[in-house]
Amino acid sequence: MSSMATESTPLPEPAPSTAGSLRKNGGRSLPGPTFIRVLNSEVIKFRSLLSTLILIASTAVVMVGFGALSAWGTGQFAGAATRDTQAAARMAAQGGDLAVSVPTSGIAFAQLILGSLGVLLMSSEFTTGMARSTFAAVPRRLPAFAAKLVVVMVTSFVVTAVSTWVAGLVAVPILDNYGLKLDLGSSQSVKLLLVNSIYVAAVAAIGMALGTLIRNSAGGIMSLVGIFFVAPIAFQLIPGDFFKEARKYLPGNTVEPLTAAQHVPDTLEAWQAGLVLGVWVVVPILFAAILLKRRDV
Amino acid sequence: MIEANGLTKVYGAKTAVAGVSFTVRAGQVTGFLGPNGAGKSTTMRMIMGLDRPTSGSVTVNGLPYVRHKAPLREVGALLDAKAVHTSRSAYNHLLAMAATHSIPKSRVHEVIEMTGLDAVARKKAGGFSLGMGQRLGIAAALLGDPQTLILDEPVNGLDPEGVVWVRNLVRYLAGQGRTVFLSSHLMSEMAQTADHLIVIGRGRVIADAPIRDIITGKGQSRVRVRTDDPDRLYQLLAARGASIEVPERELLEVTGLEPRTIAGAALENRVMVYELTPLVASLEEAYMELTKDDVEYHSLPAAEVSK
Predict the structure, then answer these.
(1) B138 and B248 fall within a common domain
(2) Which residues on B lie below 8 Å from A147 (Cβ)?
(3) Rounded Cα–Cα distance for residues A70 and A83 (Å)
(4) B204 and B228 part of one domain
(5) Residues B164, B15 within the same domain
(6) Is the ipTM of this complex over 0.90?
């Protein structure tokens, strides 16, 4: 510490740009925060946090792990499945093909982890005080919000897509053992991979909106869990047609209609589900953006 | 140049800043002095566009901060030593800040070297001492080589060498013609650093004057007068517009008149005066005097605390 104090005593040299006289223009012609620069800054912020990298790695591990486990389980119980009503329904949804949904079996956990990542990336700005630096550098605020949203959604999409694909690669030989075929290039496989990845990106966006609105990590993650895990169960337990109907409109229940090869009873049509998920993303994001712009940091 | 005009910030039932107007000029160090809770930080956050004023406005070099094309190159601010993500290294923090304005990596290294952070730049900012945090905050403020610097309590937590370093740094920057606005709750610190002083208490500007005037209490000169006819002298001086306190019999403390005027009045009216002492308040006294009615948190005298 003492050596550092002595290092700091000499006066700073004037920067080359200011040597001699005063700048007349106050730097107004020099580069300011364009969207690309702010995006670059958000990428630096994103990759310089160990916690972020850990969450991404755990998503990959969980996805691949569940893919392998599910491949084994599907193989083991393929024969019994026809007698199990739940599995039969799942089978029907995929046009009788159980193997095709194996790579995405860990998706519930991926959405929880990456959704929480969305919450944390924004809430931590406020809990650590970083927000004051961020919004001093980008006082218009919304470019920083948009840049962070892009980083969160693109990362979530790519991480989910890549880990789903790897889970598929791991699952293929396991399923093969049981005589089940999984074609990763089939249109249904590609559809499942893309829709699930888009869905997880959407969940991460909702998480980021919650983090912006609540500004508190625990509160944001609890709200996310409330929407995606508690509400579907609660709505199922409460008697009455209203909740049975409302349940279809929860964001977590939009994936099934979007990925099903045939329409599943008691779910929305695919186009409705897409619209509902879109509304679930756009509305919180708009609210978050408006409040972020208006509130004090 | 920073210009505040009727700046007001109300949080619920509490008015943090109540219609503050002032001008901070280029080429000098302007001190922003006030007790804790006086509204210094709130005012600075409003300058930086982080808090929205309830009413009034503030501009930096003629424009609200938010409307500057390259804000970090216009104004550098240390608002809070902890405005950093605790898990990110100092280097990456500065790098991310720099990226928003395409400030080259070489400048990041430059400010790290300037502030003496070389040894800890790769460590997590969350583990920094208050003094290290201040240095990082100052490094971030200098990043854009800005024309205007706003530093909120920059010497808090610094070791004596750090205090001297900050003092020299701000004097040097002001010497280059930059605007430096520096807050503190310590009068003694201001006396050694600032050219001009804005004193704030309970959200209001109490004084706004060159530091020399505040130290000498110009316009507020007090004179101690001993006389054997205090009643008569009291009337004479009161008639000339002085405000007078009578701490004891035969002793008057006169504010608002020069010693020469008092002596003249006594001579004309044949009142004997046997002491005439101009009172020059120390800086600390002057500050206490200015803010005594505006301190939000009063403490008990030590004797009463220990009772």
Answers:
(1) no
(2) none
(3) 18
(4) no
(5) yes
(6) no
